[in-house]
Design a protein that fits this description.
The complex is a heterodimer of chains A (411) and B (164). Helix content of chain A is 29%, strand content 25%. Chain A contains 14 helices and 19 strands. The radius of gyration of chain A is 23 Å and the shape is globular. The two termini of chain A are 14 Å apart. By secondary structure, chain B is α+β, with helices and mostly antiparallel strands. Chain B contains 4 helices and 6 strands; from the N terminus they run ααββααββββ. In chain B, strands 2-1-6-5-4-3 form a 6-stranded mixed beta sheet. The N and C termini of chain B lie far apart (39 Å). The chains are: A alpha+beta (411), B alpha+beta (164). Chains A and B meet through β12, α8, α12 and α13 of A and β2, α3 and α4 of B.
Chain lengths: 411, 164
């Protein structure tokens, strides 16, 4: 497969079905996208204190995200420089450093090699040459990204026009810092881009999530019936896009004088014991999350009230994490409400996720029908490509992601 | 006639738990709902060590209303995953009485559950420790709490179109 071929597989309004099924394309995606661009690895609140770390992946490579005693964040490959064992198998913790279990090579929180047993067995050995392999790390508003590409543009530039949307999303802390509250992790037998597309797919919502809508009270069901509520999709550049489903919930600090919805009345009453009316309104308005999904190419979305993180496992296998977020130091009752809302829709037993996963699996299974014309259509709302186009079901976000895919795969 | 509530023996509990398992495997969800005490809680935690569930994220943390909605979702034909629901077969064993009779009249039993899911050419297994809290109400045993602690609860799971 040459770089030219990749270009042919992505047209302005359609992509070729081989993007879901060809293992050779998948290998190239790992090399050209996941090993080369900014990939989200953690939220600031996952590692708040010196010595805190989490283990995760960038593409297929295991990495450690570590906060040093000095407060810097290091992201490094979780592989001992001696014989290659992982130096950490814990998902989350706090440690003075990392010791390889095989021969006890010992690394600091920053990945520098501190010591090896019986050093006299080595000739001309400089520990400085054998630290854990470092990725470049940058952070924007609590989102920590890393990349193997040390020459890449700064994260600030890469996020570009997505940044104001990240800022809006973080307003759901309602004055408190945003904090991760746990996660639902699941896999589905399908290509990662099927999930990537779905984050800006409003078209499926009333179909796939009918059982979720039925389970809501009337007012909430109205809120989630956003097919004709003035929403829109915008291409934000570099493959990023935003889908606004509920325009009145774009800025959670606006419209605080509006009536508190019935479903939050009990929470508001409880909050009034400890908070001013203004604070109560701000917290209550933030409890349900933002009215938009922000897709950041290639692996994270700020999706209404949670982070959605994808990890490609194989051409036809993808891991998804739905990370719940809440208010760090905020009222328990509000964070509890957010977790119950998360459980209601997300995860392997949620009222939404299993149906999404079913639809995505069906896409993967259907892609075995390779007879011509074998295109995946992303042409909805093709005539409406400018800002605020007024059609929430436009597939503008998918087109944005695939144009970025094409750019990176052809580079 | 005495007002003393008859104690729940281990044998009573095993019979009750076996009946519940049979209802779930045969998707008799209406009968399953009727096994519950009104204030009962159905919990599938993520953290296997958790004892207090309200302030943490779970897979399911259901009161009676959520249980009814969950059953409606599995049965009303609106959910595309539930329309082609998995078949399950669960075996329960290693029953142990944790609290024979507490002050509030409940009895706690822990057992092992080995569940096999079959869906679309694929078997999956779910091993779990399950804790049942039971109480007699008007002579009938009712479920006050059921906590299913999956051995792999912190790993990536797959969509479930059945109840654990």
């Amino acid at each position: 497969m040459t770089a030219d071929n990749f270009g042919d597989l992505v047209q302005p309004d359609r992509v070729h079905i081989s993007l879901y099924r060809d293992p050779a394309i998948f290998e190239q995606e790992i090399d050209r996208i996941f090993n080369r661009t900014w990939v989200w690895v953690a939220h600031r609140s996952d590692i708040p204190n010196p010595g805190d770390f989490v283990t995760t992946h960038v593409g297929r490579q295991p990495v450690i995200v570590s906060r040093t005693r000095a407060g810097d964040v290091h992201v490094m490959v979780n592989r001992c420089r001696h014989r290659g064992a992982t130096v950490c198998e814990v998902r989350k913790g706090n440690a003075p450093g990392f010791v390889c279990p095989y021969h006890a090579w010992t690394y600091g929180q920053d990945g520098r090699l501190r010591g090896v047993p019986l050093p006299k067995g080595y000739k001309n050995f400089d520990k400085a040459d054998y630290g854990l392999i470092q990725l470049r790390v940058e952070e924007y508003n609590g989102l920590i990204f890393a990349t193997f590409n040390h020459d890449i543009e700064p994260l600030d530039n890469y996020l570009g026009r997505a940044k104001p949307w990240i800022d809006l999303f973080m307003k759901q802390g309602s004055g408190f810092p945003v904090k991760t509250l746990g996660e639902h992790r699941f896999t589905f037998p399908g290509n990662w881009k099927i999930q990537l597309e779905n984050t800006t797919d409003a078209y499926h919502f009333p179909i796939v999530h009918k059982s979720f809508l039925t389970s809501l009270d009337g007012a909430t069901e109205d809120l989630f019936s956003f097919m004709d509520a003035g929403g829109y999709v915008e291409d934000l550049g570099n493959g990023h896009s935003v889908m606004v489903m509920i325009p009145e919930l774009v800025d959670l600090e606006e419209n605080l004088e509006a009536d508190i919805p019935d479903r939050f009345a009990a929470i508001a009453e409880e909050l009034r014991k400890d908070y001013s009316e203004q604070e109560v309104r701000r917290i209550v308005r933030a409890v349900g999350g933002s009215g938009f999904n922000l897709n950041l190419f290639p692996n994270i979305a700020c999706s209404m009230a949670f982070f959605r993180v994808l990890r490609p496992l194989a051409v036809d296998e993808t891991e998804i994490r739905h990370i719940a977020i809440g208010m760090d130091g905020g009222p328990d009752i509000a964070n509890r409400a957010r977790m119950r809302l998360h459980e209601h829709f997300q995860g392997p037993m949620g009222f939404g996720t299993p149906d999404d996963a079913e639809a995505w699996e069906r896409v993967q299974r259907g892609s075995a029908g390779t007879a011509d014309p074998s295109w995946i259509m992303v042409n909805r709302g093709e005539d409406k490509t400018t800002t605020n186009a007024g059609d929430v079901t436009a597939e503008t976000g998918m087109r944005a992601a695939y144009q970025m895919w094409k750019r990176m795969m052809s580079a | 006639m005495t007002m003393t509530t008859e104690a729940i023996t281990l044998g009573d509990a095993v019979n009750f738990i076996s009946l519940e398992a049979d209802y779930l495997d045969h998707r008799d969800y209406a009968a399953w709902l009727a096994l519950w005490a009104d204030g009962g809680t159905y919990v599938i935690p993520i953290d296997p060590a958790a004892e207090d569930f309200a302030d943490r994220l779970n897979y399911a943390y259901d009161d009676a209303a959520m249980r009814r909605m969950r059953v409606a979702r599995l049965t009303n034909g609106e959910s595309i995953s539930a329309r082609d629901a998995a078949h399950t077969l669960r075996s329960l064993s290693r029953f142990r009485m944790l609290d024979a009779a507490t002050r509030d009249g409940t009895t706690r039993i822990r057992c092992a559950q080995h569940l096999v899911e079959y869906r679309r050419d694929r078997f999956r297994t779910y091993a779990a420790n399950v804790t049942y809290t039971l109480r007699r109400e008007g002579g009938e045993i009712r479920l006050v709490e059921k906590v299913v602690r999956l051995l792999n609860s912190t790993d990536a799971l797959a969509g479930m179109s059945f109840l654990l």
